Automatic annotation (TrEMBL):
GO terms for biological process: transmembrane transport. Its main location: membrane. NCBIfam families: PRK10561.1. One of its GO terms (cellular component) is plasma membrane. PANTHER family: BLL4140 PROTEIN, SN-GLYCEROL-3-PHOSPHATE TRANSPORT SYSTEM PERMEASE PROTEIN UGPA. The gene is ugpA. This is sn-glycerol-3-phosphate transport system permease protein UgpA. InterPro entries: MetI-like, MetI-like_sf, UgpAE/MalFG_permease.
Length: 293
């Protein structure tokens, strides 16, 4: 192999990666760097000037009761979305993995919701649970449940959790179904011959063998709940009523683009990135030990 050929082959991977690296650099690293820099300044919302204030923005954020309220709402919301989406997806994957007539059609229909944008998913659920026109809210009324997420904070949180779970469920379903199909049937058949029932086979064989998939999805669902649910919340409740669904990512938007407090918004985005990074690190540090590869 000549030197020119070697150089060409060595550059080929970088050339192929260049478009994706450029997109990541422009739409992630550059805004992230700008947010970190902006967090140390108090800026005029119209770009007429800015003043360096060091850590004052962080101090104001960490001294705010509203920030800790949003943090608590985010933790509860993230747990509900991550665990709910994974549990529902695992149930559907187990059912779809059975050999039944029309299984491919069922699998395709279960994957479709992932193609729906978060904002659209939120609007769909908002219409179904509309206090006056919603079909689901009308059915709940027959059960004696007065549904009005526009006034009830708990119902508003339930709405955004359900919409987010429905949106993310398809993503989890694909991975769980692939994990189930990768489990050797001989193991399950041997356990059945030994007298293990379906429930015992699932918890002693199937579920442990799905632990790598479950761990991966736990990390991805946590990131989804912290960041990608903004569109769902904005389209359904806009953080209300009374801030009951104002998560950290939505508070960043409100303070920066509604309140024009750009320094505080940037400081909150930096803290949010650190929080998600710490959460991911803890998951890899402690939960990965229980993963059986």
């Amino acid at each position: 192999m000549t030197m020119a050929t070697f150089q060409r082959h060595r550059l080929t991977p970088w050339i192929l990666l260049a478009p994706q690296l450029a997109i990541v650099a422009v739409f992630f690293f550059w805004p992230a760097a700008q947010a970190v820099l902006q967090a140390f300044y108090v800026e005029d919302p119209f770009g007429l000037g800015r003043t360096f204030v060091a850590f004052e923005n962080f101090t104001r954020v960490l001294a705010s009761a509203e920030y800790y309220r949003a943090l608590g709402i985010t933790v509860a919301f993230s747990i509900g979305v991550a665990l709910g989406a994974m549990a529902l997806a695992l149930l559907l994957a187990v059912l779809a993995d059975r050999v039944i007539k029309g299984a491919h059609a069922y699998k395709t229909l279960l994957i479709w919701p992932y193609a729906v944008a978060p904002a659209v998913a939120g609007v769909l659920w908002m219409f179904m649970l509309d206090p006056e026109l919603g079909l689901v809210s009308a059915w709940l009324g027959t059960l004696g449940i007065d549904w009005n997420h526009q006034l009830n904070g708990g119902q508003a949180m339930t709405l955004v959790v359900m919409a987010s779970v429905w949106k993310q469920m398809s993503y989890n379903f694909v991975f769980f179904l692939a994990g189930l199909q990768a489990i050797p049937r001989s193991l399950l058949e041997a356990a059945a011959i030994d007298g293990a029932g379906p429930w015992r086979r699932f918890w002693t064989i199937t579920f442990p063998l799905l632990s790598p998939t479950s761990f991966f999805l736990l990390v991805m669902n946590s990131v989804y709940a912290f960041f990608e649910t903004f569109g769902t919340i904005d389209a359904t409740t806009a953080g209300g009523p009374g801030g009951a669904t104002r998560t950290l990512v939505y508070k960043v938007f409100e303070d920066g683009f509604v309140g024009y407090d750009l320094g505080s918004s940037a400081a909150q985005s930096v803290l949010l990135m650190l929080l998600v990074g710490l959460l991911t690190l803890l998951q890899f540090r402690y939960l990965e030990r229980k993963v059986q590869y």
